[in-house]
Amino acid sequence: MALRVAVAGASGYAGGEVLRLLLSHPEVEIGALTGGSNAGAVFGTLQPHLLPLADRVLEPTTPEVLAGHDIVFLGLPHGQSAAVAEALGDDVLVVDCGADFRLKDPADWERFYGSAHAGTWPYGLPELPGHRAALKGTKRIAVPGCYPTAVSLALFPAYAARLVETEAVVVAASGTSGAGKAVKPHLLGSEVMGSMSPYGVGGGHRHTPEMSQNLAPVAGGPVTISFTPTLAPMPRGILATCSAKARPGTTAERLRAAYQEAFAGEPFVRLLPEGQWPQTSSVYGSNAALVQVVLDEHAGRVIAISAIDNLVKGTAGGAVQSMNIALGLPEELGLPLNGVAP
Ligand SMILES: NC(=O)C1=CN([C@@H]2O[C@H](COP(=O)(O)OP(=O)(O)OC[C@H]3O[C@@H](n4cnc5c(N)ncnc54)[C@H](OP(=O)(O)O)[C@@H]3O)[C@@H](O)[C@H]2O)C=CC1
Ligand SMILES: CC(=O)N[C@@H](CCC(=O)OP(=O)(O)O)C(=O)O
């Protein structure tokens, strides 16, 4: 019998992308679709690309509406997931696309999100060492932020093999869907088109502690990240350019071998052939992450670059991948590997 899934925040970008993927998933059926200000609207007016759901109506996000489902995805603004999750039974699999349960250190949460810490759930980045095992059988999943997904995949093999120093510099470009659907003046088409702009400069972006949290256990000690996000004039995609000083003894051969070993058998992460570079267009609509790494011998630095679709591997695809693991289903079920090109 199909597992019944509800999506809270179904009118948003994250919720909409979860639904796009789940509509092709053989083991689930779509139950309640809930939201906030748009509750009562016909779903086809909110997410017109999701044709099979066009005649549905968006319901309010209440415990009553969400009751009676096997799985509930949350695509709600930060700070709203805990109250909703509390009202759901321990037997329900809750997959939170928001940030509320990602961070382990309450001080990090309070500093970057400015509210009380709700707690910590198993973290949905299966490729990180040890994480797949922690996701098996869990009833609660914290889906990673989109930038931490791209950056952690690019850097963790270098840390696992102890080939880089523990300070990394990351500059990443994101498509505008990363900021959600709510209207923001700096995201108006006339502001974004034909321009790239930095934001959250100087260590202020809330994804910085999440990246350090992911890399520290792999590195065997604290990792400091200098992170600069930039907004790119495209709807989807993240290109993360990460670099760290090479440790003595790091060679191009050792580097490549470390990445080959780290990604061996991973269904969604591909180390590109030497000389080929990740580009966001290759992963548009796909759950794949493309990675390349080189040793810049002139500067003595390792450069690792990754490309993901922020809404797929960076949110909804990562969420469904982790759901599959939690349920004991094949990890790739319902997830596109091919992108859309041109
Ligand atoms: N966009 C991205 O790339 C990523 C997003 N995420 C996370 O996913 C979550 C959603 O983000 P995103 O989809 O981009 O945001 P959107 O602004 O696109 O969507 C927000 C959703 O939340 C609903 N909502 C807002 N306020 C309330 C409320 N008070 N009660 C119930 N529902 C409410 C909205 O409903 P309505 O339309 O009816 O108001 C809408 O469905 C966030 O926590 C974000 O951090 C995670 C990774 C990446
Ligand atoms: C382009 C853009 O604005 N991106 C968002 C990150 C999107 C994401 O993953 O964020 P959550 O942590 O909210 O889940 C930002 O920088 O705030």
UniProtKB/TrEMBL annotation:
Q: Which reaction does it catalyse?
A: N-acetyl-L-glutamate 5-semialdehyde + phosphate + NADP(+) = N-acetyl-L-glutamyl 5-phosphate + NADPH + H(+)
**Segments forming domain Semialdehyde dehydrogenase NAD-binding:** 4-136
Q: Is the ATP-binding keyword given for this protein? A: no
Named in its record, the pathway it takes part in is: Amino-acid biosynthesis; L-arginine biosynthesis; N(2)-acetyl-L-ornithine from L-glutamate: step 3/4
Tell me which domain of life the UniProt entry assigns to the organism this sequence originates from.
Bacteria
Question: What are the protein's GO molecular function terms?
Answer: N-acetyl-gamma-glutamyl-phosphate reductase activity
Q: Where in the cell is it found?
A: Cytoplasm
| Gene3D superfamilies associated with the record | Dihydrodipicolinate Reductase, domain 2, NAD(P)-binding Rossmann-like Domain
State if Oxidoreductase is listed as a keyword: yes
Q: What is its EC number?
A: 1.2.1.38
If you read the UniProt record, what top EC class would you report for this enzyme, in one word? oxidoreductase
Keyword vocabulary terms for this entry: Amino-acid biosynthesis, Arginine biosynthesis, Cytoplasm, NADP, Oxidoreductase
| Active site, UniProt feature | C146
Which family does this protein fall into?
Answer: Belongs to the NAGSA dehydrogenase family. Type 1 subfamily.
**General function of this protein:** Catalyzes the NADPH-dependent reduction of N-acetyl-5-glutamyl phosphate to yield N-acetyl-L-glutamate 5-semialdehyde.
The UniProt entry, under PANTHER family, shows: N-ACETYL-GAMMA-GLUTAMYL-PHOSPHATE REDUCTASE, CHLOROPLASTIC-RELATED (PTHR32338:SF10), N-ACETYL-GAMMA-GLUTAMYL-PHOSPHATE REDUCTASE, CHLOROPLASTIC-RELATED-RELATED (PTHR32338)
Which protein is depicted? N-acetyl-gamma-glutamyl-phosphate reductase
Give the originating organism: Kitasatospora paranensis
